[in-house]
Amino acid sequence: MKKASLPLPISLLAGLLILLFPFLAFASEATGETPHLTGTGLGITALIIFVFAYALVIGEERIHMRKSKPVMVAAGIIWVLVSIAYAAIGQIDKVEEILDHNLLEYGKLMLFLLAAMTYINTLDERNMFAALRAWLVSRGFSLYWIFWITGVLAFFISPVADNLTTALLMAAVLVAVASDRPQFVAMGCINIVVAANAGGAWSPFGDITTLMVWQAGLVKFHEFFDLFLPSVLNWFVPALIMSFFIEKGKPAAMNEAVVIKQGGFIILGLFIGTIATAVMFHNFLHLPPVLGMMTGLGVLKLYGWYLKMSDNDPSNDLEDEAVGRFNIFTQLQRAEWDTLMFFYGVILCVGGLGAFGYLALAAQVMYVDLGATWANVLVGLLSAIVDNIPVMFAVITMSPEMPHGQWLLVTLTAGVGGSLLSIGSAAGVALMGQARGIYTFFSHLKWTWAIALGYVVSIWVHLLINTSLL
User: Fold this and answer.
1) Which helix (H) or strand (E) holds 303?
2) Which residue windows are transmembrane per the record (predicted)?
């Protein structure tokens, strides 16, 4: 979920090829139950198709093509190649079984995210986020305190709302109060990106990667809190360094009044209750969390019916929100469908490469030859270059044998590694668009050394305080 206005696609593609090169170099050493088809013409063709499709994803802003389109097409072609390859070795019956597993993983992820996105969109429609922004810009805080307040809020809102929504909300505050101070806005955006990504790393709801790890049963809900202190330090270290360079001054307070629409706080309570339901379904009933989320979405739909019927203006059409009545299906339509379809393409592409044996090779090279700790550190660095979704899905699909503390480590690094570059996370890419020309790839790169220091400190602290889990 990334990009920029420089020759980045070439360098990013090179990074992806570096990631994939060991698969080809060590093809003869693969072991396991998966057929070793990486050296075949079909296997290499599948790899090339994926790399080409991902290059188009990386160049999304330049070529103006939505990121879901190339990976969805690539997924279909790769699975055709898988089917042909398995038929040639007499194992065609395995293809549907492998594909069904990938589709099940995607279905659970998609429905979970759809429920969460609908709640976030509904809270936005009820002016809950606008009211928070209005309150912040009307307080008259100094630039120094705005820097810290937006960072703290980003860190603590992202575990619930997700890092992208949180970053956009906090950046809107920066732009509103300091649009005439580009250097401050740029530093504030960096702080928000790092804080949002770090905040999302210690919650199953804060990032797609943490959600995947939780739904896969690799880390339990309460165990994510073991990452709280490392996540705090991942944000706090670079924030503290940057705070010494914040401009002095106090922008004029802005008088912005926003009225929260009927039911705003009730919907917030329903969202919190839905999250609690998902956790209880998973922890106590051993049901998938998505069932709790979809049940909560059903409750929201029922409350949406109440909001619509409580509008007593007979001139308002029953199904038309544009003329006044609330319509929950409008919020469903506002879900990030391109993102949801992108996840479909990525999961099936990675699953198809796994069927050829590439993930088994990756597990051998990274988790056996390098060792779990260095492999998980590398996952974080790769997530700054390549989207962390396919990287984490690949790790989960590899299912390397490693201690529980290492699963926590890869959850941490995949979540926060994207902060190293502006293109390394959805939050960074979104803010480059929101503060176009102010927050850029190079303005972020200027502080990458400080962010990297926070990355190292967070890993060191995790290894220190969670030694018993390693």
Assistant:
1) helix 289-309
2) 37-59, 71-89, 109-124, 136-157, 163-179, 184-205, 225-246, 258-281, 341-361, 373-395, 407-427, 447-465
Using alpha carbons, select from 390, 442, 444 the residue that is nearest to residue 420: 444
301: CB partners within 8 A, 6+ apart: 328
**2 inside domain:** no
Find the length of the chain.
Answer: 470
Q: Alpha-carbon distance 231 to 210, whole Å? A: 13
- For position 433, what pLDDT does the model report? 73
The conformational region for residue 367 under phi > 0 = left, psi -120 to 50 = alpha, else beta, is alpha
Give, for 174, the enclosing helix (H) or strand (E): helix 163-178
Residue 151 domain-assigned (yes or no): yes
How large is the greatest C-alpha to C-alpha distance in the chain, in angstroms? 73
**How many CB atoms sit inside 10 A of residue 65's CB?**
13
Q: How far, in whole angstroms, is CA 304 from its chain's centroid?
A: 28
Q: Print burial letters for 186-204: b (CB count within 10 Å at least 16), e (below 16).
A: bbbbbbbbbbbbbbbbbbb
Rg (CA), the chain: 23
Contact 126, 328 (CB under 8 A): no
- If asked whether residues 221 and 308 sit together in one domain, one would say yes
pLDDT digits (tens, 9 = 90+) for 361-411: 888 888 888 899 999 999 999 888 877 788 888 898 888 888 989 999 999
Residue ranges, the chain, pLDDT below 50:
1-32, 313-323
| Structural domain contains residue 374 | yes
Q: Residue 321 is encoded by which pair of tokens?
A: 């929100």
Same domain, 239 and 302: yes
Cα 449 off chain centre by: 23
d(CA 385, CA 393): 16
N-to-C CA span, the chain: 31
**Residue pLDDT, tens place only, 342-364:** 889 988 998 999 899 888 888 88
34-86 tens-digit pLDDT:
788 888 899 999 999 999 998 888 777 678 888 889 999 999 999 999 999 99
Q: What angle do CA 115, 120, 124 make, to 5 degrees?
A: 145
| Helical pair 372-383 and 404-416, crossing angle rounded to 10 deg | 20
CA angle 60, 54, 191 (to 5 degrees): 60
Burial class (CB in 10 A: 0-12, 13-18, 19+), 310: exposed
Domain-embedded: residue 32:
yes
Q: How far apart are CA 225 and CA 203, in angstroms?
A: 7
In this prediction, residue 321 carries a pLDDT of 43
327-358: b (≥16 Cβ within 10 Å) or e: bbebbbeebbeebbbbbbbbbbbbbbbbbbbb
Rounded CA-CA distance 306/266 in Å is: 12
For residues 132 and 48, state if they share a domain.
Answer: no
